[in-house]
Amino acid sequence: MICYSILGPFFPSEAEKKGASNTMIGLIFGCFALFNFSTSLILGNYLTDIGAKFMFVAGMFVSGCVTILFGILDKVPSGPVFIGLCFLVRAMDAVGFAAAMTASFSILAKAFPNNIATVLGSLEIFTGLGLVLGPPLGGFLYQSFGYEVPFITLGCIVLVLVPVNMCILPKYDSIPSKDSFWKLIRLPKVLLLCLTIFSLSACLGFLDPTMSLFILSKFKLPAGYVGLVFLGLALSYSLSSPLLGLLSDKLPYLRKWLLVSGGLITALCFFMLGPAPILHIESQLWMFVLMLVLIGFSLGMSAIPVFPEMLQCAYENGFEEGLSLLGLVSGLFNAMWSLGAFAGPTLGGFLNDKLGFEWASAIQGGWALFSGLAAGIFYITEATRRSSSLQNPPGNNEERTHLMGSET
Where are the alpha helices (DSSP H) in 251-356? Predict the structure, then answer.
């Protein structure tokens, strides 16, 4: 995650010097997610054939190598050559990232089947740490040593971890299942959860190409301090995720309401992030950081319960338990997250160009508002249907019809 998040504080301004527009910068961020989307679906489907351990280690190796390659892109000519190589290297990085993430989710769910949300919530501590350390570390290394050093340093660290994981990780064997992504995604509840993942990821991805430019122009902060502003979101997300995961495992009936309330709070915070010009409130740094803190917490509320909810829905609909299903669910999760991460920066860069950050962030919050309202309507409808079926079970209806026939 550090390799992914170091771009935020300095790459947009560096890319502008190389002739890339805000829209093109958004596409460079977004292409990572687009390739991650397609690769996650493929790798999730063939997880049992490839092997979870090999997929994870190979993904780390590819990611480390292309991170180093990204560090030498400032040497290439400005204009189309620079932009084209950015797209190519980001696409390669997306393949490695998709392999590592899809395999890691499956390995954790296989190792801790009864505490999936708790384990994933704990894992998000390190995801959050990556988001926390990436921007300030990237900004510091960029200011102190230039463009190349952040990428080369972190790429080498990832490559050093490859043999470590080869020795530590267990190997899981599994029989391929006949279940497929098509069968899984046709379930209405899974479709709703996919919408939730997409909306959260789109909101988060929107900030990558736009937030640093807004902070630099609005609050006149140096690049090194821009990374510190990212701490508000990442710290609140990483610190709240284990608690939300534990809550999801211990009280499963709360998951649906965490999903709903998380989406609505996220929408409100994005509306206030600029804030939206319709409110006529002057943007201030303290308010901006406060909104980021609340966004981090609300994203955790919605994101952490999704994986166990998907698994539970699959089990209820006859899917075979095992590593094959975990591969399907983790692949679908990562694919939907990646699709949102493509739409967020791409649309965000365009809206930022045309309307400015204040309106763009308010519009982006519409994704979370739509998913929160859709989840609320779905769960209320589901609860009403279950309540009606309990009051009028099928057996009682048949018995009542039989008695009425006997009386006649």
Answer: 255-273, 285-303, 306-316, 323-355
pLDDT for 198-244, tens place per residue?
988 888 878 877 887 788 777 777 766 776 777 777 778 878 888 88
Map tokens 């950081």 to a residue. Answer: 289
**Are the CB atoms for 172 and 53 separated by under 8 Å?**
yes
Which of 255, 139, 198, 152 lies closest to 371 in space, CA to CA?
Answer: 198
Helices (H) and strands (E) in the chain, counts: 18, 0
3-class secondary structure, 401: helix
Q: Which amino acid is at 206?
A: F
Helix (H, G, I), strand (E, B) or coil at 357: helix
pTM: 0.73
Residue 29 predicted with pLDDT over 80: no
CB contact at 8 A, 107 and 220: no
The pLDDT of residue 51 = 80
Asked if 334 and 36 touch (Cβ cutoff 8 Å), the reply is: yes
CA–CA separation, 231 and 42 (whole Å): 34
Residues shown for the chain:
408
- DSSP element (H, E) containing 106: helix 80-111
Contact 212, 8 (CB under 8 A): yes
pLDDT digits (tens, 9 = 90+) for 52-86: 888 888 888 998 888 888 888 878 778 788 888 88
In Å, what is the CA distance from 14 to each residue of 83, 315, 360, 385?
Answer: 12, 48, 22, 55
